[in-house]
Amino acid sequence: xxxxxxxxxxxxxxxxxxxxxxxxxxxxxxxxxxxxxxxxxxxxxxxxxxxxxxxxxxxxxxxxxxxxxxxxxxxxxxxxxxxxxxxxxxx
Length: 91
Known about the structure:
This protein is mostly helical. The chain has helices spanning 2-6, 9-24, 29-63, 66-77. It is built from 4 helices and no strands.
C-alpha cells in the first residue's frame, strides 16, 4: 500500500523537492543552520571585543595622568623613586 503511494509521480516529485530544499539548495536548512551559528559566534565575539575596548579605554584614561602612570609603573614594573626602598609581598 505504501509502495503504491510512493510510485505516484506527485508524491515522488514532492519528496524530491523536499529533499532538495532541505539539503542541496543554496537556501537549504543545513546552510541556514551553519550561517545562523556563525552569526551567533560573531555576536559573542562582538560583545567580547566591546567589553575589552571599554576596559582598555578606562585603563588609557588612568594612564593619561602622571599619577596614574606612576601608579601603573610602580605596581606593574616595581619601579621606585631614588632613595626609596620597596618590599614586595607575594601571596
